[in-house]
């Protein structure tokens, strides 16, 4: 039998991919003044559409915020918090300015669907698309941070993003060139059951 070399063939391919997957971290150690080329942002956004998508509903919608646009996103988020009676004044103040911590911020929405099952599957597809984007960012050396929108169905944010009515914001993603690194959180083993007969 030939000796196997784990650095080549399927195992080597998997190893390289696994290293990329494990290297992606959620952190905000990024330079807010270091520009990320818009072509690169566009290319990363296009990775979203390569996610699996049941019934091919193409539910993703993306809005990209740079410059003063980041403040407008914060203002909209703060307005949504007030409208929905969420949080206190301190949270609203933080929300107004927090997006300037990165040079680029993306809002990624999932289109509404009349059928609750499709609605849920749309969101699953968008989440898978977001991971594609995050892995693409990691591959290019960009730092990223997936955050929850202040209000997932906030009208002020939805209108600013230009998303269709009922769209749910699945992720607000900070993107930028890293200024540092953070340790990977410990991961418990995935519970896996093999059922063979
Ligand atoms: C749907 C979703 C929402 C998240 N929202 C936040 C958030 O609002 N704030 C935050 O600190 N991290 C948020 N995260 C990132 C997680 O905290 C992070 O993935 C986790 O700590 C594991 O770290 P890692 O991504 O570096 O492996 C979110 C992740 C997901 C999948």
In short:
With 197 residues, this protein is an alpha+beta fold. It has one domain (26-176): NADH Oxidase, CATH 3.40.109.
Descriptors:
single chain; 197 residues; alpha+beta; NADH Oxidase; four-stranded antiparallel sheet; 6 helices; globular
Written description of the protein model:
α2 crosses α5, α3 packs antiparallel against α4 and α3 packs antiparallel against α6. The protein has a single domain, classed as NADH Oxidase. The two termini are 30 Å apart. It is globular. A 4-stranded antiparallel beta sheet has the order 1-2-4-3. The protein is of the alpha+beta class. It is built from 6 helices and 4 strands, in the order ααβααβαβαβ. The protein binds flavin mononucleotide.
Give the SSE map:
Elements: H1 9-23, H2 38-48, E1 60-65, H3 69-83, H4 89-97, E2 104-110, H5 116-140, E3 143-147, H6 155-161, E4 168-176
Antiparallel strand pairs: 1-2, 2-4, 3-4
Helix pairs in contact: 2-5, 3-4, 3-6
Q: What is the CA-CA span between the terminal residues?
A: 30 Å
CATH class reads Alpha Beta
Q: What is the CATH T-level topology?
A: NADH Oxidase
Sequence of strands across the biggest β-sheet: 1-2-4-3
Bound molecule kinds, no repeats? flavin mononucleotide
Uncertain spans? none
CATH superfamily: NADH Oxidase
Q: Summarize the main sheet.
A: 4 strands, antiparallel
